[in-house]
């Protein structure tokens, strides 16, 4: 499928059609493909996608994160797994040599940078060729290294990728136990924003939006304009993507009070900021991941408005510390993932997953998101009482996700 | 045979000076916006589209003639207001000036709508009745506008477009029922009273489903209250090139 590229606001897709009789689809043949390392076009609506750093999350949100959109992660209670996802997102930017911007009010961006996980450097992930590898090792030990009998297709692949050049592969794996070495991110284009260190603005702003957000918005606008991500002067640089990662937006550290009051003074600050951010993203080659401590926001209507202004929304709920931790059924997983919103971009439909009951587990080299599959209860103490209890607890745990049934009736007709 | 949405909505004699309300809850109703946009453009109406949530390329249109569609891209214009370059106020009033000075109402936005839809003499011969399309009104509430100001704006638009020029108005409101957003509830109820055609799009009560994307309820209100309102309920699934409607429970996945 040819991918037409005209503007950076979005790749206009002539496939969209509402009338059921005729189609206005025109295959654009003579078009230039935007080739930026680390991106690929979506098969579904022609948007340019980047990886979020976690391949299973890419799959859940429809292949990847579209350039120009905003991904919101609703943090888990201790901000452990959502922080991990943010780090994967930034690490992916380094591996694909994208520019990136880290904005934080609590932890210094340099500390976040030091704590990024190291990429797994083998060219082919171990899961895929596990068995073949084993057989190959057994055979090859006697013969010379050059000829491979079974895995002959891999003959010409390099064994270990030693030079971390701008990887053209989409999606990588990261080792959570190792930290990224300093020389890996030395050459990266990195723009930190640390709220306590920011200087005062030159002139006052009276738009009733909190000063911290104004500073951040101005900073992002400055970076986009100065470094040419908005294509204002096309001859200046080769094209690259700007990845923006914002940690714990809306928390008290940003100066906002939506997390401590039911009727906050700055009720509209966060939504105004997100609206401005959305405008900046749509008009530039950038992509943004934001984490928000939604469990602290007292007024649910505010969270609803925030969800409406973001393109993709994922909620993370970990089992840490909750009584479900001891529950046998959930022992394989670390928590639940809830897909609250997926964007409809330049098309009538979006990539909808099969199911929204998803759970995640964090292994050393992989963050997997899987369909929540509860195995049959074969324990000795199985009884009707037990089952009811489990059903209640699973319903309560999923209540926060919002995709569960809301009506009393179990039929729609 | 699946009933066609077009059959119930598109008779042009009925859509004359009407106010249409689209309400979405727990799902995405943007396919209705796309439908009305292309419908009115094909009917040779002049359209003023306030696109507050998406960029222009999202709405692939069939408008080829110059001047038929006036698109206001809210996202682009908002940055000038949120991050002003200088302290001095602009000479020309900006449509989104409420972002910069929160105490003002939506007067400037209405002036923009009025000026783009007021027809000169040669305009009248070229285009049929004017149309105002708003996607999405609840974003204005998220940006801190008072619900009374929003209702005033809608009232002014209705007088200018529907009464004076016999045009049509289509507004999309997004409201999640169970979140207790009082401002949004207020606006939605007021608009439900004022509109003559209401299309409510709901996610399914039993949760998410891949084959049935939601339920749509169409309500035609009779102006003179002589007979009861017509109400139709369908379930729908959105495809690549259109939407298919079917009676509740008769999805192809079920039958």
Automatic annotation (TrEMBL), chain A:
Pathway: tRNA modification; 5-methoxycarbonylmethyl-2-thiouridine-tRNA biosynthesis. It comes from the Eukaryota. The keyword Calcium does not apply. GO terms for cellular component: cytoplasm; elongator holoenzyme complex; transcription elongation factor complex. GO terms for biological process: tRNA wobble uridine modification. InterPro entries: Elongator_complex_protein_4, P-loop_NTPase. Gene3D superfamilies: P-loop containing nucleotide triphosphate hydrolases. It is found in: Cytoplasm; Nucleus. Keywords: Cytoplasm, Nucleus, tRNA processing. CDD domains: Elp4. Belongs to the ELP4 family. Component of the elongator complex which is required for multiple tRNA modifications, including mcm5U (5-methoxycarbonylmethyl uridine), mcm5s2U (5-methoxycarbonylmethyl-2-thiouridine), and ncm5U (5-carbamoylmethyl uridine). The elongator complex catalyzes the formation of carboxymethyluridine in the wobble base at position 34 in tRNAs. PANTHER family: ELONGATOR COMPLEX PROTEIN 4, PAX6 NEIGHBOR PROTEIN PAXNEB. This is Elongator complex protein 4. It comes from Erpetoichthys calabaricus.
Automatic annotation (TrEMBL), chain B:
Pfam families: ELP6. Pathway: tRNA modification; 5-methoxycarbonylmethyl-2-thiouridine-tRNA biosynthesis. GO terms for cellular component: elongator holoenzyme complex. One of its GO terms (biological process) is tRNA wobble uridine modification. CDD domains: Elp6. Belongs to the ELP6 family. This is Elongator complex protein 6. It comes from Erpetoichthys calabaricus. The lineage of its organism: Eukaryota, Metazoa, Chordata, Craniata, Vertebrata.
């Amino acid at each position: 499928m040819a991918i037409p590229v005209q503007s950076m606001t979005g790749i206009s897709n002539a496939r969209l059609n509402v009338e059921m009789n005729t189609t206005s689809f025109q295959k654009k043949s003579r078009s230039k493909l935007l080739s930026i390392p680390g991106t690929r076009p979506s098969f579904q609506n022609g948007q340019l996608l980047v990886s979020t750093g976690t391949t299973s999350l890419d799959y859940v949100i429809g292949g990847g994160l579209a350039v120009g959109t905003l991904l919101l992660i609703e943090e888990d209670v201790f901000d452990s797994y959502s922080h991990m996802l943010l780090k994967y997102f930034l690490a992916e930017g380094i591996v694909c040599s994208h520019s990136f911007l880290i904005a934080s009010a609590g932890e210094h961006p340099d500390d976040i940078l030091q704590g990024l996980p190291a990429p797994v450097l083998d060219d082919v992930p171990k899961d895929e060729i596990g068995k073949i590898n084993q057989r190959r090792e057994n055979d090859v030990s006697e013969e010379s290294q050059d000829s491979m009998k079974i895995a002959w297709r891999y003959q010409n692949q390099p064994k270990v990728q030693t030079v971390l050049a701008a990887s053209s592969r989409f999606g990588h794996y990261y080792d959570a136990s190792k930290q990224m070495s300093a020389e890996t991110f030395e050459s990266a284009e990195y723009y930190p924003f640390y709220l306590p260190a920011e200087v005062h603005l030159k002139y006052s702003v009276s738009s009733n939006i909190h000063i911290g957000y104004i500073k951040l918005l101005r900073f992002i606008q400055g970076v986009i304009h100065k470094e040419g991500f908005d294509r204002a002067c096309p001859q200046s640089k080769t094209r690259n993507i700007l990845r923006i990662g914002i940690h714990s937006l809306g928390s008290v550290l940003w100066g906002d009070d939506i997390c401590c009051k039911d009727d906050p003074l700055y009720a509209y600050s966060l939504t105004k900021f997100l609206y401005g951010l959305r405008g900046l993203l749509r008009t530039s080659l950038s992509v943004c991941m934001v984490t928000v401590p939604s469990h602290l926001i007292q007024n649910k209507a505010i969270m609803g408005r925030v969800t409406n202004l973001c393109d993709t929304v994922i909620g993370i709920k970990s089992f840490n510390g909750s009584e479900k931790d001891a529950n046998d059924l959930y022992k394989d997983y670390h928590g639940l993932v809830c897909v609250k919103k997926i964007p409809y971009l330049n098309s009538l439909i979006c990539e909808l997953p099969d199911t929204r009951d998803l759970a995640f587990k964090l292994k050393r080299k992989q963050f997997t998101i899987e369909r929540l599959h509860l195995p049959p209860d074969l324990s000795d103490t199985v009884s009707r009482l037990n089952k009811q209890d489990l059903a209640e607890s699973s319903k309560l745990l999923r209540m926060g996700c919002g995709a569960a049934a809301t009506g009393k009736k179990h039929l729609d007709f | 045979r699946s009933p066609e949405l077009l059959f119930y909505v598109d008779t042009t004699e009925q859509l004359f000076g009407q106010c249409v309300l689209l309400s979405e809850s727990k799902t995405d109703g943007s396919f209705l916006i796309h439908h009305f946009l292309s419908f009115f453009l094909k009917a040779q109406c002049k359209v003023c589209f306030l696109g507050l949530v998406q960029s222009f390329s999202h709405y692939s249109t069939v408008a080829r003639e110059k001047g038929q569609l006036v698109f206001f891209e809210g996202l682009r214009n908002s940055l000038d207001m949120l991050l002003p370059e200088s302290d001095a106020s602009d000479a020309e009033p900006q449509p989104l000036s409420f972002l910069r000075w929160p105490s003002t109402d939506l007067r400037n936005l209405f002036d923009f709508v009025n000026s783009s839809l007021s027809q000169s003499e040669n305009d009248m011969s070229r285009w049929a009745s004017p149309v105002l399309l708003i996607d999405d009104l609840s974003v204005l509430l998220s940006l801190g506008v008072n619900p009374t100001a929003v209702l005033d704006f809608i009232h002014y638009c209705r007088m200018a477009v529907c009464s004076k020029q016999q045009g049509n108005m289509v507004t999309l409101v997004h409201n999640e029922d169970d979140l207790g957003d009082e401002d949004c509830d207020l606006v939605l109820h007021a608009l439900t009273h004022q509109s003559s055609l209401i299309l409510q799009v709901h996610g399914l009560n039993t949760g998410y489903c891949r084959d049935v994307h939601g339920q749509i309820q169409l309500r035609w209100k009779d102006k003179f209250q002589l007979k009861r309102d017509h109400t139709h309920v369908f379930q729908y699934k959105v495809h690549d090139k259109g939407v298919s409607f079917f009676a509740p429970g008769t999805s192809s996945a079920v039958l």
